[in-house]
Amino acid sequence: MTEKYAVVVVGGGAAGLSAALVLGRARHRTLVVDAGEPRNAPAAHMQGYLTRDGMPPAEFLAIGREEVARYGVELVRDRVVDVERGEDFAVVLAGGRTVRARRLVVATGLKDELPAVPGVAERFGRDVLHCPFCHGWEVRDQPFGVLATSPASVHQALMVSQWSKDVRLFLHTVAEADLSDEDLRRLAAARVDVVPGEVAELVVEDDRLTGVRLADGTTHARPVLFTAPRPVPQTGLLERLGAELHETPFGAYPVVDATGLTTVPGVWAAGNAIGFAEQVVHAASGGYRAASAIVGDLLMTDLDAAAQV
């Protein structure tokens, strides 16, 4: 017999676990399927989450799993490889198991595609960073580098100047001619140095970033480097279900309402599955909103069915 759940949550990060907590407390049989690949895994600590500031991401998730388990939520380390919609949803797991669900929460997040510069991937989350709100305080007042990935990297360079007054924007593969007059005026006002030329590699000594070396051989001493990965939304399941997506400069994400309901009836999305800039605190909030909407939706559906008997 195929196991039946009220809700299957795909993804066990902050959004998925938050949704599962609400659903479990509402007495709905819930399954969380987690592939164990959180976006913030490279970071040693997470910041900006009230009462959890500085907590290691792995510890945060471990506590979350313990909390949802108290309410009977089932968690499985697996991956959803297919889903079909009929009267309910048939959810196929990589391990060979198929379960059914009346509603789905898709919290599959996204992956960060890093610039192909030697040293960047190895240092990411340590002294190669992407979000000043996440890490700016911890590296404040140090000399910053910003590795451009597009003309939009100007915005990142301007933002990080809030945390350091010694910022150099390495244009890398971006041509100086691609910067607008407004960009140049703002960079000058923020006293951000613009460095043309392709970056060849990062300089690392004693497991610490010490500099940025250009293709011409010149080296700039920088103990901190910011860069903007290319976000790759994990929308495969939503696309299989026929969810409408909308294009953004940061990838295609599902069209959702204020609760996270997609254009597919019975399917909600939350966390980085709906946008690249969702921090942990936003993801948890989105999971809560989606789950509370699902509780109401299931209740009214059942009451309407009972009223017709």
UniProtKB/TrEMBL annotation:
Gene3D superfamilies found in the cross-reference section: FAD/NAD(P)-binding domain (3.50.50.60)
Domain of life assignment: Bacteria
UniProtKB keywords: Flavoprotein, Membrane, Oxidoreductase, Transmembrane, Transmembrane helix
InterPro entries: FAD/NAD-bd_sf (IPR036188), FAD/NAD-binding_dom (IPR023753), Ferredoxin-NADP_redctase_2 (IPR050097)
Pfam families: Pyr_redox_2 (PF07992)
Membrane-crossing segments per the record: 6-24
Key word Aminoacyl-tRNA synthetase present: no
The FAD/NAD(P)-binding domain, residue ranges: 6-285
Catalysed transformations (reactions): [thioredoxin]-dithiol + NADP(+) = [thioredoxin]-disulfide + NADPH + H(+)
Protein's recorded name: NAD(P)/FAD-dependent oxidoreductase
Organism annotation: Streptomyces levis
